[in-house]
Structures are given as structure tokens and as C-alpha cells.
Specification:
Elements: H1 4-11, E1 15-16, E2 21-22, H2 23-26, E3 29-35, E4 40-47, H3 53-68, E5 73-80, H4 83-87, E6 93-98, H5 106-119, E7 124-128, H6 136-139, E8 147-149, E9 152-154, E10 156-158, E11 161-165, H7 180-192, E12 201-205, H8 212-220, E13 225-230, H9 234-249, E14 253-260, E15 264-265, E16 272-273, H10 280-287, E17 291-296, H11 318-334
Parallel strand pairs: 4-5, 6-12, 6-13, 7-11, 7-12, 13-14, 14-17
Antiparallel strand pairs: 1-2, 3-4, 8-9, 10-11, 15-16
């Protein structure tokens, strides 16, 4: 028959689904009683939230572990963790990067904004939530894959940013041919099955538009903030307004608008050419009643063959400096 110590050891590695911490870390196992005659193990467990579908999943895990270890029957009671424990957990700021259409540089903005926040000393994670059009690993020059430790996936770290992407789980750039419900399940796994550790910011590079993944993010992360990326062209800004309107209707705060490809500046003359027009970002920001966080010119990052990351701008690069200014504005705005 199991002892109390063995029961605790069996259960202490289970994660609280809301706090993303083990039972050992949260002190969740509050009581263990053993009835040797009946083979009954009774356990009282405290979770951050009770009466949820996640609690049912925890219940099934606990019962299965104890029965596999020899318990004939299991009695299980749940309680809620004290407010102090829930309050002191380091919940990151969720920041979704969205756009109304593809091709406006949303993923480029996502990776450089994540790197800029990390350069400012923040603990940053990045989810490549564009399941069909994943590109973050290639943009950041990531060649390694995540590893599995226990029941958790350990994200790959690059430039101080922890990264997870669908691109890590397909071979040879194979296409992902899934229907909508599968996308939501994969996105949920990126939250639940990845060991993010302590983060200040968790950025999500969303697919363009207002489809299934964007809707799932709005449902899973009701406190998520959003940044809308557009180009200065009136049509791009018009389409991007739909993504912003979706955020507003689902009570997500739009932190601001970033205008990408604002102009091309000649290295010879310093003259600016507004190839895609002017004013789209400012107009969109006014329409969404938010700030224009920055205007990013066209320009190529400086490539380093020894440490290749084709889309990451150096901290001293003119465009890299714009990203740093945008990151500082975001930190100040969300403080």
C-alpha cells in the first residue's frame, strides 16, 4: 500500500493549469490520508481556480497516477489556493501582433520587437501563432529544435527570446494541412505544454486577418493586449482596421499601431521616398483611438554569416534603433 510520502512524490510534479507551476511549487497538496484496509487514498488539492474544465483534467491525472501506483480507490477534494499565492505568480503581459492582411511585415515586427524588449532587460517569450505560415525560426536564424523535459517542451532561446513555432514540428518545410479546430488545439498546447518559466512579456505573432487562430487567442487570453501592423498605403490601413475592430469588440486593448515600410531613405542623398504612400498608420491609429507607436522605413538588416539571422536588426542599425524606441514606448505604456 502507498505511503503518504509516496503519494506526495507521485503528485508533486503535476502542474497547476492556471499558474503553470508544479504542485510542489504552489503547495497544492494540502492533505493526504491512507486507509490501508480499503486501499483508499484520500487527497485534498488546492488549485488557483476551481469548478473548471481544467480541474477535471487534473482530477483525471491524479486518479490515474495513484491507481497506476497501486491504490484501489481514490478520494479527491479540491480547494482554492489563497489569494496571495495566486496574486504573486508572475503572469506575463500577453501582447498579440496582428494585421488585417499578409505581406505588411507583421512577423518581422514581431521578432524585432521581441528582441528589442529582451535587449532592454525584459524576459520575453514569442509564440509563432501563424500555424500555416510559420516563419519565426527562419527569420531569427534558429536551427535547433525544442527538447522535451519530463512532461514539458523547453522552448528554443535566441537573442534572449524564448521561441516556440509550428516550424519546429514539421519536416523539410512541409505544409500544414489542418482544419480550424486543430489550429486551436495546437495553440493551446503552446500555452499549456511549453515550460516558459518566468516571463515579463509573451508575444504572439498572429496570422493575418480575423480567422480561427485570432478568435482562439481572444477566447484563451481575455487580458491580451494587441498591436496592429500596417503599411502607409490606404488600402492596407483600411483592411488592418478590421483586425483592430475585432480586438475592440472582444475587449482587448489596442496598445498602438506600427506603420511598416513607411518610406525609403537614400543612403547617398538622405532623401525620403514614400513608395507606398503616406498617412495610413496615423489614420488607422486615430480610427482605433490609439497611438502610432512608430514608423519603420524600408531597409535590410546587416547580415553576419557566422551568426545568421536574416530578419533581425542590430541594436545600432538605424531601423534597430526605431524598434528600441517602440519597445520603450510599449514598456512605458503597459507599466
Amino acid at each position: 500500500m502507498l505511503t503518504e510520502k509516496q503519494v506526495v512524490e507521485l503528485l508533486e510534479t503535476i502542474y497547476d493549469p492556471f499558474l503553470k507551476k508544479t504542485f510542489k511549487e504552489t503547495g497544492a497538496i494540502q492533505e493526504v490520508k491512507i486507509n490501508k484496509e480499503k486501499g483508499l487514498v484520500s487527497v485534498k488539492i488546492a488549485l488557483a481556480k476551481t469548478g473548471t474544465a481544467e480541474q477535471l483534467q487534473v482530477q483525471q491525472t491524479v486518479v490515474q497516477r495513484l491507481k497506476d501506483a497501486g491504490a484501489s480507490s481514490v478520494g479527491l477534494r479540491f480547494a482554492q489556493l489563497p489569494f496571495e499565492e495566486e496574486r504573486t505568480t508572475n503572469e506575463p503581459i500577453y501582447l498579440a501582433i496582428a494585421s488585417g492582411k499578409g505581406g505588411v511585415g507583421k512577423s518581422t515586427v514581431s521578432v524585432n520587437l521581441a528582441v528589442s524588449l529582451a535587449r532592454l532587460g525584459k524576459k520575453v517569450g514569442l509564440i509563432d501563432a501563424d500555424i500555416y505560415g510559420f516563419s519565426v525560426p527562419d527569420m531569427m536564424g534558429i536551427t535547433e529544435r525544442p527538447v522535451v523535459r519530463g512532461e514539458k517542451i523547453i522552448p528554443v532561446e535566441r537573442f534572449g527570446v524564448k521561441v516556440i513555432s509550428m516550424g519546429f514540428f514539421v519536416e523539410d518545410n512541409s505544409p500544414v494541412i489542418w482544419r480550424g479546430p486543430m489550429l486551436g488545439k495546437m495553440l493551446k498546447n503552446f500555452f499549456d505544454e511549453v515550460e516558459w518559466g518566468e516571463l515579463d512579456y509573451l508575444l504572439l505573432d498572429l496570422p493575418p486577418g480575423t480567422g480561427d487562430v485570432a478568435l482562439d487567442v481572444h477566447t484563451m487570453l481575455p487580458t491580451s493586449k494587441e498591436i496592429i501592423v500596417t503599411t502607409p498605403h490606404p488600402t492596407a490601413a483600411f483592411v488592418a482596421a478590421r483586425a483592430g475592430a475585432m480586438a475592440v469588440r472582444t475587449n482587448h486593448e489596442v496598445v498602438g499601431v506600427i506603420e511598416n515600410m513607411s518610406y525609403f531613405e537614400s543612403k547617398t542623398t538622405g532623401e525620403k521616398e514614400y513608395i507606398f504612400g503616406k498617412g495610413g498608420g496615423q489614420k488607422l491609429a486615430e480610427e482605433l483611438q490609439t497611438d502610432l507607436l512608430g514608423q519603420l522605413p524600408l531597409g535590410q538588416p546587416d547580415w553576419n554569416d557566422e551568426d545568421f539571422a536574416p530578419s533581425i536588426y542590430g541594436e545600432d542599425h538605424p531601423i534597430g534603433k526605431v524598434y528600441m524606441d517602440i519597445a520603450k514606448k510599449i514598456i512605458a505604456k503597459l507599466r
